[in-house]
Amino acid sequence: MTTKRILVIDDEPSVTRNLKLNLESGGGYEVLGENRARNALAAARKFQPDLILLDVMMPDLGGDDVAARLRADPLIHNTPIVFLTAIVSNKETDGHEATIGGELFLAKPVDMGELRKTLEQHTRN
Amino acid sequence: MNSESASAFTLEAVDHFQGFRLLRTIKAWPPSLATTVLIGLMAIVGLVDYLTGLELSVSLLYLIPIALGVWTGGRATGYTVALASAAVWFAADWLGRQSYGHWYLPVWNTMALTVSFLVVAALLASLCEVNENLERAVAHRTRALQDEIAQRCRAEGELNQALREVREAHAELQRTQFQLIESAKMESVARLAAGVAHEVKNPLMTLSLGADYFLARKLDNDDETQLAQDMKEAVKRASSVINILLDYSRIRPPQLSLDNLSLAVENSLILVRHELNRQRITVIREFAPDLPLVQLDRARIEHLFVNLFINALQAMSPGGTLTIRAFASDIVEDAADQAVTVELDDTGHGINPQNAEKLFEPFFTTKPPGQGTGLGLAIVRRIMEIHGGTVRLTNRPDGRGARVTLQFHSKFEGK
User: Fold this and answer.
1) Which residues of chain A does B204 touch, with a Cβ-Cβ cutoff of 8 Å?
2) CA distance linking residue B313 with residue B303, whole number of Å
């Protein structure tokens, strides 16, 4: 089974740490956490992820700006991005991933079962 | 009766009671009829004079055709009739072969009578002219008064219209002010909600991921597994409070479509049926059969009813009764519109009337700590606002619980 690389960009170290712990302990994923939004592009270029989990609200740079930079990069622009946000209610996403304005969203706090389903479905092959 | 018609009525009454109508009718005779009558009258008076001779002095009767002549034809006709009457008198006198002591007596009598008739005609003509001038002045003044009254009526109408417009503008201003206050409040709540969501949900996510990690590791015993599951549940509950706040603050345009309120009520009842059964609550439906369709955002209206049903359930003891009434009524101000009212009566403890308005404010709750977010009724009011409707919470008239009254408008098409 191939290991998928997931880049988690979130300003909360506890979130990136726990996501890494959960996904890697279950097998099949290699996770890199990045807590500084401004370093996201460099981290993505270096790590070459198969999917990026990106927090929307971060203090130094918003998730939308980070996404714009990632998509402008020729090496990263095809990498799927799933946004993680606290300001979308679970009802709006119906507990699952949701598409808002053409973007994929998962509402925080994320359920690991749902996250795994989303990763399986959208991770680049 | 307005002032214009009142003045017309008064003038007509004066006309009638002073006998002016007959005189006006005579004055309006055509000249041929007037001439015929005048000649006829002079002939009759002359004949009477001839037949009676000196035994009965009827000279004064000649004044009748003279007066009539003046009245129907004016001064010139009056003089003509006066001269003609004098001639008729002389003819009657001469034909009657009256005997006078001296020759000049009949000449003198004729001259005296002619002058008298002319003087009478002149006096009557002057009176008529004075009367006509007076009537013209009265008519002129009446027209002026009527114009003035009409002008005042118009001014009054314009003033009333202006007053109505000012009142409408004032009401609109109040509505706008209310909406501005509401939107300012909503903006604050939205900012607060986003801030709270960000600050609380990130730690919740850490807790949730931690619990997920332990659950995935096949814990040593059931107690530990249960502990991790309880942690997940606690995270879910805390998260749902934040979600309610987010949903409340979210300003999304409603998805309106013509829909049946009673169907929305039925669907919402299905969502709370387990709780209804658990508490042995009897549900009585009194839906009018001809309920008009209204523009509804079905998801939000069902959310509204579920909130209200849950409130009623929490207020009632087991075995209570929930009565749901829906009926339509006409709106006086707008014949094309109809109010569709839904009343929910519970058999709970009722409300403190002092809190009736506060209950719709965000975060106000009378429930024990931990049992209510204080957003349920605020959400209900917000949903009614986006439907152009109103919500009221009162005690039932029979004092056996609380009543929620929702009023929708059949004409509402969104704003």
Assistant:
1) 108-109
2) 15
CA distance A74 to chain B (A): 32
* Residues B379, B284 share a domain: yes
Q: Is A91 on the interface with B (CB under 8 A)?
A: yes
Paired with B338 in beta bridges are B330
Q: Which pLDDT tens digits describe chain A residue by residue (125 residues)?
A: 689 999 999 998 999 999 999 999 888 999 999 999 999 999 999 999 999 999 988 888 888 889 999 999 999 999 999 998 887 665 555 555 665 566 788 888 888 888 999 999 988 76
- Cα gap A113→A30, rounded to integer Å: 17
Strand order of the sheet with strand A81-85? A29-34, A4-9, A51-55, A81-85, A103-107, A98-100
Sign of CA dihedral B268, B269, B274, B280: positive
Q: Is B70 exposed, middle or buried (0-12, 13-18, 19+ CB in 10 A)?
A: buried
Torsional class of A39: left (φ above 0), alpha (ψ -120 to 50), beta (otherwise): alpha
The torsion angle over the Cα atoms of residues B243, B249, B253 and B254, rounded to 10 degrees, is 60
Q: Any CB–CB contact under 8 A between A110 and chain B?
A: yes
| B162-180 tens-digit pLDDT | 999 999 999 888 877 877 7
CB B333 within 8 A of CB B171: no
Q: Which residues form the domain of B314?
A: 257-409
In chain A, the domains with their CATH numbers are: 4-122 (3.40.50.2300)
Contacts of B213 in chain A (CB under 8 A): 18, 21-22, 25
DSSP state of B183: H
Query: In this structure, is residue B171 part of a structural domain?
Result: no
State the ipTM, two decimals.
Answer: 0.82
